[in-house]
């Protein structure tokens, strides 16, 4: 018993120290997800939404968001303990195209979305859904 105590006590005391690296980690970071409607107007009037965005995670359904040209829809998320946080969206360019994309995937995005105001930036365009980690360079990650 004495032996067990002499092992268990130091272990128990060092437990908070083992957790220290987590204290400044991604688990406390609040990520901002931006989705902007950069679709061309074509023949639709400027204020009429031409994009329907529907985003959700396992626990949270943001609902249907009708978006007019130039609108930016934003929400926040933290990363869960198991780093499985995932927000997926369906984007429907009314009368044209529709597709799904992952707006936030913890493992994929935890680093790249730290670059610019802890934001993941998405831009819905006529040829696809673009990602940017710096709000300057855009990549067509989900062509449609
Ligand atoms: C990205 O840049 C544009 C200007 O090019 C600006 O209007 C917009 O607010 C920026 N987005 C964020 C999330 O900072």
From TrEMBL:
GO biological process, one term: rejection of self pollen
Signal sequence extent: 1-25
Subcellular location: Secreted
Pfam families per UniProt: Self-incomp_S1 (PF05938)
Entry keywords, A to Z: Secreted, Self-incompatibility, Signal
Any one annotated GO CC term: extracellular region
Family affiliation: Belongs to the plant self-incompatibility (S1) protein family.
PANTHER family on file: PTHR31232, S-PROTEIN HOMOLOG
Protein name in the entry: S-protein homolog
Upper lineage: Eukaryota, Viridiplantae, Streptophyta, Embryophyta, Tracheophyta
